[in-house]
Amino acid sequence: DVVMTQSPLSLPVTLGQPASISCRSSQTFVHTDGNTYLNWFQQRPGQSPRRLIYKVSNRDSGVPDRFSGSGSGTDFTLKISRVEAEDVGVYYCMQSTHIPLTFGGGTRVEIK
Amino acid sequence: EVQLVESGGGLVQPGGSLRLSCAASGFSLSKYWMHWVRQAPGKGLVWVSRIKNDESGTNYADSVKGRFTISRDNAKNTLYLQMNSLRAEDTAVYYCVTDRWLGPADWGQGTLVTVSS
């Protein structure tokens, strides 16, 4: 299985400041079609998860452009350019190239 | 607008069975692969199963293989998860999720399954 490891576990941030979450995989996961299926999800308190990013760096419809994804190989990053109060929650990375699909353990973003 | 509504959760004894349903509206289920993803109380997300849009292929996490069966009725726009031989560690909120760009995309509100005597 591809193991996804996120850091940090908890990320206190100041409103208006940038934030960065790291996701590392135990192996590369390039699909036979040449794509790397790395997704990022946001789960606000008491809500269902919502996908923010697919295929490493593509924003889903309606996702603010302050969210961006990058990376390659086994190293990936989700960045929030300027954190807003509504960004509080837990963020998960997930690879969907190989079965079983695997999630990272999550990073809790909170306001300082 | 994509809407997914899960139902069928509840309290069941260890060894028991439950069938979850996910009613889709606002789109044709037949166009999408679908997933079930679960989340134990206070824990992270865990992928459970996936089914192709024409039921030509299914996949399962090792932890549920042989006990859970994913299926769909495209005519009814409904996804199912039959869960047998339930264990305490299956206690979780179960989410029904569409697949877009080969990854879980749109999520339902979830249904809670509690396995306890």
Describe the model.
The complex is a heterodimer of chains A (112) and B (117). Chain A has 112 residues and is mostly beta strands. Chain A has strands at residues 4-7, 10-13, 19-25, 38-43, 50-54, 58-59, 67-72, 75-80, 89-95, 102-103, 107-111. In chain A, the strands form 2 sheets. In chain A, strands 2, 4, 5, 6, 9, 10 and 11 form a 7-stranded mixed beta sheet that branches. Chain A has a 4-stranded antiparallel beta sheet with strand order 1-3-8-7, with no helix packed on it. In chain A, a hairpin with a 6-residue loop joins strand 4 (38-43) and strand 5. The mean pLDDT of chain A is 98. Chain B is mostly beta strands. Helices cover 0% and strands 52% of the residues of chain B. Chain B has no helices and 11 strands. Chain B has strands at 3-7, 10-12, 18-25, 34-39, 45-51, 58-60, 68-73, 78-83, 92-99, 104-107, 111-115. In chain B, the strands form 2 sheets. In chain B, strands 2, 4, 5, 6, 9, 10 and 11 form a 7-stranded mixed beta sheet that branches. The relative contact order of chain B is 0.32. Classes of the chains: A mainly beta (112), B mainly beta (117). The A-B interface holds A 31, 35, 37, 39, 41, 43, 48-51, 54-55, 58, 60, 90, 92, 94, 96-97, 99-106 and B 35, 37, 44-47, 50, 59, 61-62, 95, 100-110.
